């Protein structure tokens, strides 16, 4: 967890305090169920809730006990016993550490995902607002970094909206994957604990019982979870890269907001750099990389080994904290993005008329020229524009083979920008349900 | 694509012949729609279907043309024109190469996924059959590779069933992700092609229209697809690792089927090695690794660059062909797995009675001993079994502190295997809906 | 192995024919040593070389035998015996399959690396030639995609040269890593084979004996090998990305060579796309991804398991064939790169004089202005250029706070391009040993 | 950085305090050189060393300034100026932030690597000691987890020694990769700073000047660095996996030291789990995963973008701190490993005599039996041992086809363990230079 890439709400999900509080709740809910089915006294369950609920757990003390026992759950239970008193012997009856650890981890992941879902909503809101704002802002579309044909800046943002809308769905599915609870004992057989305890705790925590666990909740769930976060990070990288391209000096169609007092370079006072989106690119690399150890965590030995644990101590917090930060940063970038329609217009017309080459090509084929010939005719005139700065329309009108197939009026008609934007409303309706 | 890890049906999805056939169908379906809305003559669309449908495309010839044009779709269209004749000029009207390439790639992925889904069904069937066969075959559960408490071999297989059942759901979701079609033109604006063409082609091919595309179908979809395959591969690795462990000489509770004539080693004629599951472990590494370049493919520049293409030429076939092979191989392993219940029983009793340590611990706490004292009492007797081969029951009965809390009958009662299997039916009902 | 990304020489390293030929040589060299130390008759060794050396191994037949034995080395030995006759019983004495397989794999990797080293030399040669050609071609240096200060195109290429020169060193080190031979028997103890056999075979094949092997040559060597290839691929990606940027429409300072007859787009005849460097970007992703399974291959169980084998059947050929192709493609791109110095000059001057901002900043501090004030002064004038297209020099001369510290002559003197290129010779001497 | 997987010395390399101290030293050394060549007054350089050297930098204050300037180096320089006074305007003359940042990062990596090298020495020492201790401790070698032929536990450890010895060499090479310094200005042209400054600073810090830098030190160096750490982590995983296998209940040939007071399980007091080596397995996954973003960092845009920076804020500390911890933990495990020779002996003889199958096979071929027949004869007797617990020697002596080729004495002679260990001294001499 890197402080500069962390936001407090998400950080708090992963604090020691939060963790021990969740551990306590799992144990206490389990006691309720154990009391209900008569394994422990109801009075004990009540005492545990009261005394444990009021306790301020001392993280340092627990750590100290762990240094002797080399076992974190035992250390916590020992500490908890100090608050609860003699009834503490009814806690953790028939449970195994992983019942607590794994259920807690899933509670944390679910809480983290709820924050991420809210982040996503905010990002989608910003994208939608700016998309409608620039629905008709014409700009050149580019393939291979080369001018292709016109589109609108709104369509670019609509595309991002649709992509993150899919990411929201994926995030929801990922949340579903890890929203399970296991209180199934040492090897998952419920030998020492009735399955009804698991059902009760699951319900109390808003989770579903894991249909069959071993000592641990199966890690294919978590692999899917972190892989999903990696995909979302990759979408962040895509949009960040788009903005970085738009801001580069020669393009300059959009810019990250540059705050008063900000300095772009210690050496070059003229600089305004897309540092936020570059930063997002790096953060995306990190979140993506966590998918790999998460997948390697799946193949635990037999009913469990503990190799997954250290991995999760890194990637549980790091992946969610970083993604939370990245989504919020991206939302800010989109929200305040400086957009330069004039510059878009100037870039679009850099090679006069060249972007209409396909329309001319199609018109020629419609007029009976073979596809191969049409391509050759258009390409030879296009290359003059490209290489010598000629005007595409002028060149076409001066090419006898072209004018043999198309009249001047027909050719001129192909140079209309509106032609390219006529379906923008269709696209918006598909993405936003309205145009 | 490694021949020894390939099965013909999946390989054929990725053949050049299949690809060109799909390209043709996309173009021909598009012509139908173009004819319907009056852009090209209906007769032309009919001719295209007839002549193109009857054509035997010559892969070598297309390659030859590509060597000149350096463009594969143009090469194909040139070849197609030879069959179709003059009406060929109506083909590909207003479309861009990616309309064909991306829609085709998705058709191939969907077909591949349908094969994978069938593979998954077969695997699930095998797991279910063997799970019920061994529902009551008691075996030791292990955490950290160390004996923990008894479970049944059927529960192990039920766990695998539940895991692959989740994988089936994920695979279905992944199929959904990539089952889209884009016929949206050079930068996705439908400038030269009516959106109705896309709708028609999508429907004809069993796909959904991509709500908003650029020149390409957004690659977050494919990242999600290959990440999902990586997760499934990781589950294969888990089950393969379980079997490898069970087959190791000192354990030998199960073995891969060893066919007549098979040789385990060129040097050591006594060897019977778990080579199939070791092989699956390696294959899983490969399929998993493909998730990474798939995620890096998302951040294409602007409306597209072509960096994703080479990656997909590798991982499209390699991931699906390898996973298909791996699922089938795993199904065979499960189907014919030699299971040795006697050996399971012998291993379970290797440390006489030690697996009942938790029950004794719980009984002591129930009898009023503090958790810490109970743990200490049980641990000191357990260590004698572990270190000197003592009998756990005898040691307990000879420990005055233990017998002060529990009677001999109470202690003996804790050494019952049935205690551990009493909830197996519950687990089976959760997983299979019946027990 | 994707045919379109493969070159014949490297492909042949990995052919079945090559593999069986190397297997034979390993066995025959071993026979020489066995004969020398009296384990088998010298006559037998001679016969084996003669009959085996003349044999045309039939790949299909060997495959057929393997389908029964499920063991490739046994299948080969059975086939070889058909040629050699009764003396074939002296082949493979005391050896284990991995002695042959692993030594062969390393021979193939060494041969592959020799090709890669030659590729690297060709790339370095091209970079050097173009670097000197454009040593003095002034161009804008960019950080964050934003104009920074001038450099020369030659310096850019010198940087690439230095990077690939490091890559050559790394490749040599990687070759060293895998240039070992193991003929050490079933678990590496030489129980059935004298260590002198290993020494002889190693020397005959240009390898070093593996100091201690198990059944296999330790896979940390191969992990290092493939990780190195991944790093080299990343350097290819860097240079490819640079060129893609330079070719984008708004920059257009350099272009991949566009051959006669080439078509950039099926739809837009005006397009000239950096498809080769985009392709290299994708290939780099693949080669990089292979590092991961190679690292996972290290942790084999005990003296070996065979999980690494399937991984290596993919990445052995795929990594080296792809990298060979990529290096050759990159060499071609550099060799024929179209460079546009005029456009470089035009871009450099897009914001008149702004690139000199640092010099003015430094002059102000030298003149006694505090760093903070100097930064503020320069930034406020720079922003006018950036935002309103003003001329930087004019703005500075009109700023009283600036002229209070620096005379007009002093300010004008800061606007000299030569100032930025005065150490280019130093850099070239560092990189190439001459300027 | 996870506190429980961190050691203080390595953590301090990455503290804010250390970083700012190194920044100061880079600036101050640069001032020395600038004074020497007459750019700034010598007195100023002296003052800067004196006042800056005595200063206690306030991390919080620097952070506060950065929140305004959004630039960390400027924030530091502003803070430094408070201590140095007016002469502070001579600091950072002609330098760019990256000169400081990148050189500092490399200083930190070099210091981190020196710690890792010391860790490695300690690990090698422990491996060597235990290897000699168990040079003659016979144990079964296993391939595929299946008994193969005898080896010694010392040979296993010698193998690990040789592997980590290679890792030490790789670590040294990795240190060499990143031990460079760049003080080359905004785009690496030395426009505003004489190359002699770089040479001076490099020498003062024990680094080499980077032959050609852009704004940044090329990231292929760091990619190679982190890839190397990933390979080393994979070797840690290998040895950890070996120990985990040896400790599993059915094998139990070695055990991690179990300290007094330690608890293996909250539920099962009998457990002694290989938790340290399982933990190392997880840590290895993490360190390995960092290689991927490090490689993605190479392809920065033009003369630099800042996407690498966030990645390095994670992996710089995380990779080195985790690897330091892992190496130390592994050293402790090896140092205190409980080894059970009696159990090794018992396991070795589990299938009586079966491990001698190859010797019998070879004797049969030497006696004139064809390889195929010999294999068949040995395999059929071996399978009886495997499947029915027969005694291999007895079976062979009762097989007429076997005794037709070999006398009883000849057969009995093959059942000698000493045969397998006769070359252990050779191996030790190869690895340790002595036996």
From TrEMBL, chains A, B, C, D:
Enzyme class, broadest EC rank: lyase
Enzyme Commission number(s): 4.3.2.2
Record field: catalytic activity: (2S)-2-[5-amino-1-(5-phospho-beta-D-ribosyl)imidazole-4-carboxamido]succinate = 5-amino-1-(5-phospho-beta-D-ribosyl)imidazole-4-carboxamide + fumarate; N(6)-(1,2-dicarboxyethyl)-AMP = fumarate + AMP
UniProt key word Translocase: no
Coiled coil stretches, renumbered: none
Keyword Lyase: yes
The Adenylosuccinate lyase C-terminal domain, residue ranges: 352-432
GO terms (BP aspect): 'de novo' AMP biosynthetic process; 'de novo' IMP biosynthetic process
GO cellular component: cytosol
A GO molecular function held by the record: N6-(1,2-dicarboxyethyl)AMP AMP-lyase (fumarate-forming) activity
SUPFAM superfamilies in the record: L-aspartase-like
Keywords linked to the UniProt accession: Lyase, Purine biosynthesis
Pathway the protein takes part in: Purine metabolism; AMP biosynthesis via de novo pathway; AMP from IMP: step 2/2; Purine metabolism; IMP biosynthesis via de novo pathway; 5-amino-1-(5-phospho-D-ribosyl)imidazole-4-carboxamide from 5-amino-1-(5-phospho-D-ribosyl)imidazole-4-carboxylate: step 2/2
Protein family according to the UniProt entry: Belongs to the lyase 1 family. Adenylosuccinate lyase subfamily.
Protein name (database record): Adenylosuccinate lyase
Organism from which the protein derives: Aureimonas phyllosphaerae
């Amino acid at each position: 967890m890197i402080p500069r890439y962390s936001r407090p709400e998400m950080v708090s999900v992963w604090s020691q305090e939060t963790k021990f509080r969740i551990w306590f709740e799992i144990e206490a809910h389990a006691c309720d169920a154990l009391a209900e089915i008569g394994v422990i006294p109801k009075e004990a369950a009540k005492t545990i809730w009261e005394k444990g609920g009021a306790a301020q757990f001392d993280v340092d003390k627990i750590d100290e006990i762990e240094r002797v026992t080399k076992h974190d759950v035992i250390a916590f239970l020992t500490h908890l016993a100090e608050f609860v008193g003699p009834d503490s012997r009814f806690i953790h009856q028939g449970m195994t550490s992983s019942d607590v650890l794994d259920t807690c981890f899933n509670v944390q992941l679910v809480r983290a995902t709820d924050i991420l879902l809210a982040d996503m909503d905010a990002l989608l809101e910003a994208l939608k607002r700016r998309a409608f704002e620039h629905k008709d802002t014409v700009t050149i579309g580019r393939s291979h970094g080369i001018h292709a044909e016109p589109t609108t800046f709104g369509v670019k943002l609509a595309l991002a909206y649709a992509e993150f809308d899919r990411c929201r769905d994926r995030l929801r599915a990922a949340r579903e994957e890890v929203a399970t609870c296991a209180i199934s004992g040492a090897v998952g057989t419920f030998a020492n604990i009735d399955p009804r305890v698991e059902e009760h705790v699951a319900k109390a925590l808003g989770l579903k019982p894991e249909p069959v666990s071993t000592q641990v909740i199966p890690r294919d769930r978590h692999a899917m979870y972190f892989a999903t976060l990696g995909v979302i990070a990759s979408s962040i990288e895509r949009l960040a890269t788009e903005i970085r391209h738009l801001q580069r000096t020669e393009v300059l169609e959009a810019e990250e907001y540059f705050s008063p007092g900000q300095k772009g370079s210690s050496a070059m006072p003229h600089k305004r750099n897309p540092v936020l989106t570059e930063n997002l690119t790096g953060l995306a690399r990190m979140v993506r990389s966590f998918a790999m150890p998460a997948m390697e965590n799946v193949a635990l030995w037999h009913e469990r080994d503990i190799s997954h644990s250290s991995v999760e101590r890194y990637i549980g917090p790091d992946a969610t904290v970083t993604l939370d930060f990245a989504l919020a940063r991206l939302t800010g970038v989109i929200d305040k993005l400086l957009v330069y329609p004039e510059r878009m217009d100037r870039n679009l017309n850099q090679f006069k008329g060249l972007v209409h080459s396909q329309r001319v090509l199609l018109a020629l084929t419609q007029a009976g020229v073979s596809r191969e010939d049409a391509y050759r005719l258009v390409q030879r005139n296009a290359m003059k524009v490209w290489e010598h700065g000629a005007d595409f329309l002028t060149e076409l009108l001066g090419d006898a083979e072209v004018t043999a197939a198309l009249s001047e009026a027909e050719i001129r008609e192909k140079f209309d920008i509106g032609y390219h934007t006529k379906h923008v409303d269709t696209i918006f309706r598909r993405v936003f349900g309205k145009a």
